[in-house]
């Protein structure tokens, strides 16, 4: 049990009182005094500040992390320039206070703003550092970590007259910083691969407070930050990316198939067809109680799409009435919202999300098609009380053509599709039966998914897969294998060596950060 004590601290710029774990309150006071010397007081929020709660909650996406039991930071810093980020790291280092960095706040375990064990830590919230600078002529952009993917997509579409795009996630409010740090996949992955396949430079603040670009950070660290997981190597301030061409009009369709109409057969078939279609065609499936909904993006016209569907996937019985032609930027929201109604493209800039439900998620990779009988049984799982849903994202094409060691994201050749399991419950409920359902369903799925290791996607973070064990003031490399090899397969060791280079003291640490490994081990 943590003993929490109230301490009143008088600071140069703010008069505050806050709760902090007893052992570090003195360090915390020194840390805050240090910060006050370099960061304007209106950018610092301690639990005594009137806006502390609203700043903390501003980008929380899961109300289950709003309970009184959640371990909160002793301070939130909201930098408006890079020197403030540097100051947070230098003061944190000097006074033994760790920082957790938050970009979009979508972390499934909330690790960008909470600690699982009581600990005095600060949050560096990058929401104010979010410019997007598009260079149409070179088809590149610099994007700051605090931007959302929606802000990136909007800027790219606008600057290019809907001719350029970027291959990353579907939900417009996810933050660039966390999303790129873990890979970043979405509806363009079969054509163009994932976000980190297109990162060509970056600016990192390391544990010594240095600003490092691609060249200065060195080959191994630049490799590691492109998918090796957020928080582990330092704070990435901005990313230079290569943009990709898209036709000015793309085609989307959404086709629901109920179990009574043959969803089990269509899904069984989809497993082999989805990953083998032409790269311009992406068909994912959302599987809920009694219905499989096929959601698709095609980089071309409806006229060109119809013969492909008739030839390759007649079982879906898709026809012209399902086609909706629109710009690529519009297609993101059309498919994400999924209501079948058009959504204005400016909604890509809306950073507010609904907070009416909490959720729990986890993931799997499938390398062998799942049998028809198993699909029939899966639908009985989705029909139970307190059940959730599955999202199946097809691989194949470019995402699978990139070699496994080219980036830390290892789920490449041979993967048929990714499964995300998700369950929701009303904010305010404890969600225990919903979490139990997802854990039981995950256990049921074990024989049918990838093995040795049972692969998982880092950005669908799940602490059930394991967490760090600290030995002698650094996270243990051996203990970290339990979760690290699921997320990174054979790349885990190389990530640990890169961590050993850039942050051997393990200053940047959370429950699933990469442990440092010294070279001679
Ligand atoms: C509704 C929803 C939809 C999603 N859809 C997709 C999808 O389509 N495709 C997909 O691939 N993923 C998807 N995700 C997962 C998403 O990619 C991850 O949750 C991602 O980590 C979120 O990034 P963030 O900046 O919003 O999160 P944060 O919570 O801010 O950060 C996540 C982790 O990265 C660290 N971090 C944040 N910023 C930085 C930085 N600048 N430098 C270093 N470390 C940093 C944090 O400390 C934390 O550990 C979705 C998530 C949600 C909630
Ligand atoms: C960053 O902000 C500080 C004020 O906190 C200011 O002194 C400094 O000049 C700014 N730096 C840049 C590069 O804008
Ligand atoms: C443990 O690491 C932290 C962060 O690097 C450091 O501040 C602290 O002094 C270290 N403690 C010991 C006992 O080495
Ligand atoms: C197209 O599909 C819809 C829905 O499945 C169906 O109602 C409609 O009759 C079909 N149209 C044609 C021309 O086949
Ligand atoms: C932004 O999205 C939220 C959540 O969906 C919604 O409630 C709000 O009305 C939207 N704001 C604007 C300006 O559209």
From TrEMBL:
<comment type="similarity">
    <text>Belongs to the oxygen-dependent FAD-linked oxidoreductase family.</text>
</comment>
<keyword id="KW-0732">Signal</keyword>
<dbReference type="InterPro" id="IPR036318">
    <property type="entry name" value="FAD-bd_PCMH-like_sf"/>
</dbReference>
<protein>
    <recommendedName>
        <fullName>FAD-binding PCMH-type domain-containing protein</fullName>
    </recommendedName>
</protein>
<dbReference type="InterPro" id="IPR016166">
    <property type="entry name" value="FAD-bd_PCMH"/>
</dbReference>
<feature type="signal peptide">
    <location>
        <begin position="1"/>
        <end position="26"/>
    </location>
</feature>
<dbReference type="InterPro" id="IPR016169">
    <property type="entry name" value="FAD-bd_PCMH_sub2"/>
</dbReference>
<dbReference type="InterPro" id="IPR012951">
    <property type="entry name" value="BBE"/>
</dbReference>
<dbReference type="InterPro" id="IPR016167">
    <property type="entry name" value="FAD-bd_PCMH_sub1"/>
</dbReference>
<keyword id="KW-0274">FAD</keyword>
<dbReference type="Pfam" id="PF08031">
    <property type="entry name" value="BBE"/>
</dbReference>
<dbReference type="InterPro" id="IPR006094">
    <property type="entry name" value="Oxid_FAD_bind_N"/>
</dbReference>
<dbReference type="GO" id="GO:0016491">
    <property type="term" value="F:oxidoreductase activity"/>
</dbReference>
<keyword id="KW-0285">Flavoprotein</keyword>
<dbReference type="GO" id="GO:0071949">
    <property type="term" value="F:FAD binding"/>
</dbReference>
<feature type="domain" description="FAD-binding PCMH-type">
    <location>
        <begin position="69"/>
        <end position="246"/>
    </location>
</feature>
<keyword id="KW-0325">Glycoprotein</keyword>
<dbReference type="Pfam" id="PF01565">
    <property type="entry name" value="FAD_binding_4"/>
</dbReference>
